[in-house]
Amino acid sequence: MTVEAIIESFQDFNINPTEPEDTQFQPLCFNPPADLRATCKSLSETPTYLFRVASPKTSAQTSSTWVRPKSTLPHEEDIFSNLDEGNKRRRIAALLNDHLWWKEPLNDPFVSWTSSPLVALAYIYYRHWSDSDGSPLEKINLYVIETTKFPRGTFIRDVDLLNVFIGSDPLPYGKNLAKLKNWREGNLYFGEYLSQGALQIEGKCQVINAQSIFAGNRLRRIQPAFADIEVPQQRPPWANEVLRLRRVLETRNGPRMQVQPAVLRDSMQALREIADLFENPAWRLPMAVYFAALMGDRLDENVATTPTTTATPTAGSAAALLEELRLFYTSSDIGLDCDQLKTKIIAPAAMPELIQTEQIFRLVHKDYTLRKALDTLGKARSFLGRLGCITGTVAAVDPDRTATKAILSELNTIIKDSKLIVVLDAFPQRLSN
Among 413, 416, 405, 411, which residue's Cα sits nearest to residue 426? Predict the structure, then answer.
């Protein structure tokens, strides 16, 4: 066994006996005082899915079981606890500043997540290429968690914390919270969310190895604007690369290049390959939607004859996309049968990748609802045909039409109660009887 293998085998080993290793473990939640709850509104408006990239050199220890920041001391307390005592506001502001500026202090209690897979994917490039890390792709993982499986308050948006602690920042200028806030309010917003303390993610996440994402050139088949991972850059960009890719995804004012049908089919094949990387089938539809949003205007296959300035996929490209996504409908648990999907997307104007994601989710919901309605109509047509065949039988045994009126009344009630699908097959037999 190599040294690297031995080290990796100890990733999930916990030498802290005070930390429970069971399913009853409760995360350390953010619980701001009443006067700050309006400022911390993201506690109630958290995206359903958050993403994180980790390598062996990442500051916070990350595995498929636990995520632990550098500071995981026993009896940790919420950063909002006793906030007005002593210099705690100033101390938390300093910790927040160090974390968001990547200073990696030993007493860092935070772990960062992003609501954008685009940001996470760009960070894989950065981790793989940078001198400070340089981990091979097979050592880098993409973690996706479902936030609804955690208590309210487990995650908070970085901007909310900036708004709370900016007045307590010990740094009056330079790399301080005020500068970060100014960037976040512009186009340098990356959908960052923070958790605090150790977080047990087993059973609430999916883990995809970075090597599998780039295998077979999958990512660039979905969106060719991504860089070639095999051609490293000496000073790898990250924030600027996200901005460059967002410009590719944003709405364009002029006619767009036509995507050849064969190229579009290959993109859909790559999308299916990436979706199949998720071990839990229930995750494949939402993750396929997230990755499909990275196609941007490549979804508009009819642009040669019908130029558009909208970011919504045109009818032809939507049909091609939906044909792929329908493969995952039956295994999905995002609430396709409900009036509203269970998936929450927070899509600010600065994040076109999430605006597109939200639009595709709506498209999927409409497609499923329409197909279900058409299926209902087909069954109704079949039902009415069978009903006509037994009309003579009913008339012969019911000369005064009493039974017929009762049957039609029941049918009317069934239709009004939207229970037609359930009883269509059984109803003609009941009529015959």
Answer: 411
pLDDT at residue 19 greater than cutoff 80: no
Place of tokens 């229930």: 282
∠291-342-49 over CA atoms, to 5°?
45
Within-domain flag for 10: no
33 located within any domain: yes
Statement to judge: residues 189 and 102 lie in one domain: yes
Residues 404 and 338 reside in one and the same domain: no
Query: How many domains are contained in the chain?
Result: 3
Q: In degrees rounded to 5, what are phi and psi of residue 281?
A: -55, -30
Tokens of 214: 């780039």
The pLDDT value recorded for residue 199 is: 95
Q: Which residue has the higher pLDDT, 9 or 41?
A: 41
Q: How far is CA 176 from CA 69, 103, 404, in A?
A: 21, 12, 79
pLDDT of res. 235: 84
Supply angle C-alpha 360, 365, 369, rounded to 5. Answer: 145
Q: Do 116 and 181 fall within a single domain?
A: yes
∠ CA 71-196-182, nearest 5°, is 110
Q: What type of residue is 66? A: W
Of 121, 193, 102, residue with least CA distance to 150: 193
303 found inside a domain: yes
Contact of 221 with 213, CB cutoff 8 Å: no
> Is residue 75 situated within a structural domain?
yes
Which residues constitute the domain of residue 84? 25-210
For residue 414, the surrounding DSSP H or E stretch is helix 402-416
